Amino acid sequence: RDERPARGESSIASLVVDVAIPLAIYYALHDGLGLPLVTAMAASSVIPAARTAYAAVRERELNQLAALMLTLNVASVVISLVSGNARLLFAREAAISSLVGIAALATVLAGRTPMFAPAMEAFMTRGEPRREQAWHRLAGGDRRFTSMLRRHTVIWGVVLLIDCAARIVCAYTMPTGDLPSLSTAITVGSISLAAIASGAVYGEKLQRALDAELARPSAVA
C-alpha cells in the first residue's frame, strides 16, 4: 500500500498544530480577551517552542514549520517593543499566508501527497470505509485522479500567495485603524475564493471519478 497519504495527513496535522492553534491562541487572547500583544504572542509561542525543542532534542532535526512560527512571534514582539509599528505586525500575517501557500505548492512540486488532498478526501469519503478504499485506489494508481488532486492544491497555494500580496499592500496603504477588520475580510475572502474555485474546477470531477470507482464490480465489498 502507498504510504504517501499518511505523510499528507501529517502535513495537515502539522499545519493545525504549528500554525492554526498558535494563531487561535493569539487572537483569542489579544483580540478576544484584550491582553497585551506581548502576552498573547508569548502564550501562542509555547507550542511552536516546545515542538521545535522536541524535534531538536529527540529527533535531532529542525521542525521548520514550528521554528518559523516561533521566529515570526519573536520578531513580532521585538517589533512591538521597539517601534510599535502596527503595519509591520499586520504584514506578519502575510508571512503566514505565504508560508502555507509555498508549503502547499512544494508538496506538488516534490511529488508528495498534495497538502490539501487529505481534506478533500475526508469531505468526499465521509469516513465510510468503502469510499475511503476507493479513494486510496484512485490516489495510488490513477494518474488523472492524482493530477486533479495536485491542481486542486495548486489553486489553494496560489490563492494563499495572493492573500499574502493583498495583506502587504493593505499594510502599507490603508489606515491603521482599518487593519484589524481588513485582516478578517481578507481571511474570509481568501478561504471562500479557494474553496469555490477549487470545488468548481475539480470538485465535481473528483466526485465523478470516485463514484465510477465505487461502481466497478471489483470495488464491491
Outline of this structure?
The protein is an all-alpha fold and 221 residues long. Helix content is 83%, strand content 0%. α4 packs antiparallel against α5 (86-109), α7 packs across α8 (143-173) and α7 (129-141) packs across α9 (179-215).
Give an account of the 3D structure.
- The chain is mostly helical.
- It has nine helices and no strands.
- It has helices at 4-32, 37-44, 46-58, 64-82, 86-109, 117-125, 129-141, 143-173, 179-215.
- The longest helix has 37 residues, at 179-215.
- The chain starts with a helix and ends in a 6-residue tail after the last helix.
- Mean pLDDT is 80; it is low at 1-9.
Strand content: under 5%
Mean pLDDT: 80
Report how far the terminal alpha carbons are from each other: 18 Å
Give the tally of β-strands: 0
Determine the fraction of residues in helical runs and give it as a percent range: over 70%
How many helices? The count is: 9
The value of Rg in angstroms is 20 Å
Low-pLDDT regions: 1-9
Helix-strand sequence:
HHHHHHHHH
